[in-house]
Amino acid sequence: MKASTSTPSSEHNDFQSREVTFTETLKALGVNHKAHMIALCGMGGVGKTTMMQRLKKETIAYYLNVDLGEKNSSVRADKLRRGFKAKSDGGKNKFLIVLDDVRQTVDLEDIGLSPLPNQGVDFKVLLTSRDRHVCTMMGVEGNLILHVGLLIDSEAQRLFWQFVETSDHELHKIGEDIVRKCCGLPIAIKTMACTLRDKRKDALSHLEHHDIDNVVSKVFKTSYDNLQDEETESTFLLCGLFPDDFNIPTEELVKYGWGLKFFKKVYTIGEARIRLNTCIERLIHTNLLLESDDVRCVKMHNLVRSFVLGMYYEVGHASIVNHGNTLEFHADDTNDSCKRLSLTCKSMSEFSRELKFPNLTILKLIDGDKSLRFPQDFYKEMGKLQVISYDKMKYPLLPSSPEYFANLRVFHLHQCSLRMFDCSCIGNLSSPEVLSFADSDIDRLPSIIGNLKKLRLLDLSNCYELYMRVVDRDRKAISLTDDNCNEMAERSKDLSALELEFYDNNVQPKNTSFEKLQRFQISVGRYLYGDSIKSRHSYENTLQLVIDKGELLESRMNMLFKKTEVLCLSVGDMNDLEDVEVKSSSQPLQSSTFYNLRVLVVSECAELKHLFTLGVARTLKKLEHLEVYECHNMEEVRCTGGSEEETITFPKLKFLSLCGLPKLSGLCDHVKIIVLPQLMELKLDGIPGFTSIYPVKKSETSSLLKEEVLIPKLEKLHVSSMWNLKEIWPCEFSTSEEVKLREIDVRNCDKLVTLFPCNPLFTLRNLEELKIENCGSIELLFNINLDCASAIGEENNSSNLRSIKVENSEKLREVWRIKGADNSHPLVRGFQAVESISIQGCESFRNVFTPTATNLDLGALLVISIENCGENTGNDESEENIQEQEQSQEETLQEVTDTNISSVVFPSGLLHSFHNLRMLTLDNYEGVEVVFEIESESPTSRELVTTHHNQQQPIILPNLQELVLWEMDNMSHVWKCKNWNKFFTLPKQQSESPFHNLTTITIMFCRSIKNLFSPLMAELFSNLKKVHIEFCDDIEECIGGGGAKEGSNEISLNNTTATTDQFEVLFLGAYANALEI
């Protein structure tokens, strides 16, 4: 797909956000790929079938038509098998078998495929399914189950307006609102668009959300019915009680599920947690739930949630769920059949005394302030309550009368204000099995809590108390403050789960037994959760220790290393990780106790020189996240020792951050190969020992990543404060491997000169965002030599680069430097998806576009912003004069041409190339005299090639909507044409005119401009609505009369009288001269 030239496909599936999935699938279907099975997975209505149809068009030469009238499956399979073999021509022809909307496992033998690979028949199976588990059961490898996600907002809007055309502004706003309610689901967008197309405005204004819900309810009902598991269905329905777009903590679902008795033949909370995780995994695989950025949380798509709310009565879970911002809840809303009540209480002042919910099993109230009042006998008519949950309630109503709570199993208080609250009444209850005060600032537990004989789980998370889950069958509750170390040591022998925080590391758990702990979160010397909201709901086994080595060994917390999943260490006198392990004679040689680590963060270890020994490195097979920072003596990640022929692999490492390591000399210099097969994000900060990131072959250049470091999946590269870094890639860098980087962010690297290698298109295929900030030596971004074959982007060299942003890089002069540019070369396709270019605070910057830029395909460009640039033009000009004296006459002429162009933002030869440009901002751009230079001659052949869809008569900037010009002191013209009269007499073949979508012009502090545009230009601006001109001292006229006199000929136009009647806003202010309209 090329954003600059493609037209909407009939399938409406050519979306940039899905191009990676499409490309990966197409590659897997290729003849050189060994896989036989590929799957597209996603929620119903998301566009899997549409993408499959597009893939069929790309891959299938002709179709094999076989009549399958047979009802017997074995006969039908045999007929298919014989058909495949007959058409294979001895293996010369290859087959693609497409299985669409697979909801249950399909046996390949039933469709005649099972023995074929062994009989010379080559085939691939492409299937689509809502259920990832089905794909796995059919034998599709995990990396070939490709997800088809929801559309981003801009794509959703584009899909909608492909079906609907309207010039009515009010109708357009209604349409945009409908698209937002569709939440990126194509089936909903398309259906509502077709509805809108046939509606009048008065009918559309009453369009409600339930209309969209009706469209998609059948889609989700099919997925729900296919679950065929009562526990999974109950978990799914439970998630509907939470507000829209909510991060739903899975641990909260465990508590609710336990209280409502969802889990059959489960006898402990631990077993319930395992069962719940299985249900969650199933729901995510079927796309009924979404993964959340918040650890140990899930999310529910808004449309899925609407479906759930509509399902409650159908499945016998009559519920009242209302999470609106302004809720008025009345007794009339009650219902004897209601089993679930979930309310946001914001703006509520009281509950009615008439409330009656005799069959209510779960009560969930959220966001009640201190003014909310409960009637005294609020719980009287709720005798079947099993779960009470208060979330962010200022004054929750605690149960005081035991006779109303015989069935209560879970009492959950989260982020409620319980400091100085008397909670002793809870001790009068006999039935609760789960009691949670998480994040509720409780400062003491009354001794009467010990009367809760059935209590299995006590949660005091983040209450600065000991949070303890006693062994499930233990009948005794334990509560200790952080000063009670001796008592804790006595009671710790029975602990199976523990959350403990000693922010003051003078107090430490001494003589405490950790042998029976299965789940724990322990922090010494720092807050357990810190600033990271992502860890709030994490229930991974966690150790965070700011401690001396001797204290760590004495506390025996290192006994937990073998069970630890998240480890954060600041041990000042530690030499390496092996230094703090438990030393055991029974431990095998070259093994380590860190084998369960998923996250490792090591910081502020003053004596640390090497992070890993070889033995430790070999055991980190589960490590996904590694951070090392502020270890000022660290020289290498892995220490010396072992064979130099050794290969080290970190098979699951996805994130690596190395920061504040001034003596770091390499990752692992003394091994043959380092393999990081899953690394996707690399962050480097404050490492001065390297001049390059990627290696130069047979060079002494100090590069961080040697040739022996293999990182095939790296997507994000963040580089900051590497003071000696001169290049990311060396100029002559090349590789046969695909570069998968999607995001590059480089900051504060003042010696950086080279960002990309020469002819960088092979590095840009997957790149989406490029950010450069405070890099004072870089002069250009992309260096392209068109005389080299690799420079010209063919079909397979197209890229996804959408955004280029450079800030405060004083020597930057050019975005592109193109050698050998002329009209004979084809377009360079590597930049065809760029939508935004922003250059700010670059003093030497001259212009985004020079005449050589006509060799670039930039048709997707939407926004250009240039601010505070060009301040060093005087110095640049002197340098150019010196160069001109040394160059040939031809080179001098080219230099003079480029210098003249630097005073024009859009030279005439380029105006036709930016068909999609929406917004242009120029702010304090020194040296610019003209914004748009318009030729009165016919366009050149190059202009015709680069114009949108190869129209034979290009339109100049037809989609430009907003023009902002600030502090352009040298600008004399916004639009400049040698002969306007001649320009307006050129033959026009389109119904649209140049600049016809321009609606807003803002010009401020531009002290050299005398008029905005001529009367002849006024006829182009039929949609201009807002003009704001202020502090422009020399301006005399908004619509100048002089424009018609610029050419040698004069012309009279009867219908081009300039008028201001069309303007909605016309602001003209603060002028030294009198101003005429």
From TrEMBL:
InterPro entries named among the record's database cross-references: Apaf_helical, At4g27190-like_LRR, LRR_dom_sf, NB-ARC, P-loop_NTPase, Plant_NBS-LRR, WH-like_DNA-bd_sf
Gene Ontology BP, a term: defense response
All residue ranges annotated as the Disease resistance protein At4g27190-like leucine-rich repeats domain in the record: 582-697, 714-870, 896-1033
Keywords, sorted A to Z: ATP-binding, Leucine-rich repeat, Nucleotide-binding, Plant defense, Repeat
SUPFAM superfamilies on file: L domain-like (SSF52058), P-loop containing nucleoside triphosphate hydrolases (SSF52540)
Residues in NB-ARC domain copies: 66-166
Residue ranges with Acidic residues bias: 874-893
Source domain of life: Eukaryota
Pfam annotation, one family: NB-ARC
Chain intervals for the UniProt region annotation (Disordered): 873-894
A molecular function GO annotation: ATP binding
Family recorded in the similarity comment: Belongs to the disease resistance NB-LRR family.
Protein's name according to its UniProt entry: NB-ARC domain-containing protein
